[in-house]
Every structure is written in structure tokens, then in C-alpha cells.
Design a protein that fits this description.
It comes from Kurthia zopfii. Belongs to the KhpA RNA-binding protein family. One of its GO terms (biological process) is regulation of cell shape. The protein is globular. The protein has one domain: GMP Synthetase, Chain A, domain 3 (2-Layer Sandwich). A 3-stranded mixed sheet has the order 1-2-3. A hairpin with a 3-residue loop joins strand 1 and strand 2. The chain contains 3 helices and 3 strands, in the order αββααβ. By secondary structure, the protein is α+β, with helices and mostly antiparallel strands.
Length: 77
């Protein structure tokens, strides 16, 4: 799932080498923490959060079919 997130975010940012995805897993949920260069944070969030919502929708859909846990994507600043 981390690779999926990186693949989605990489074309959006100016500094693709700064993309980092970490996972925090508990009994009933998985939190993917996305970190990008501070100059790219606006591109990843998008206007009114539209890009972030799209990323989350894709990850939720892929994770729900892959694992039986609730998936979350946090964009760290």
C-alpha cells in the first residue's frame, strides 16, 4: 500500500525524493502517514482538499479489498 501511495503522489510533487510513507498498524486499523517536502504540501492537499480526498478514496478502496482493517491516510506537515 505504501508503494501505491508513492506512485500516486510522485507525479504531483516537485521533490519526489522527499516522499516518505510510514505505517502505524493496530488491531482494527492501519494509518498511513504521508510526508512530503514542505513546498509540495499544497500540491498534495489540493484546492479545498480535493487531491487529498482522491488519494484517500483510492487507498481506502484498495485497502478494504486487501485487508479487513479500516485504512486512514494522514498527510503530515
Amino acid at each position: 500500500m505504501e508503494q501505491l501511495i508513492k506512485t500516486i503522489v510522485e507525479p504531483l510533487v516537485d521533490f519526489p525524493n522527499e516522499i516518505s510513507v510510514t505505517t502505524d498498524e493496530s488491531a482494527n486499523r492501519i494509518v498511513y502517514k504521508l510526508s512530503v517536502d514542505p513546498r509540495d504540501i499544497g500540491k498534495v492537499i489540493g484546492k479545498q482538499g480535493s487531491v487529498a480526498k482522491a488519494i484517500r478514496a483510492i487507498v481506502y478502496s484498495a485497502a478494504s479489498s486487501h485487508r479487513m482493517k479500516k485504512a486512514y491516510v494522514d498527510i503530515l506537515d
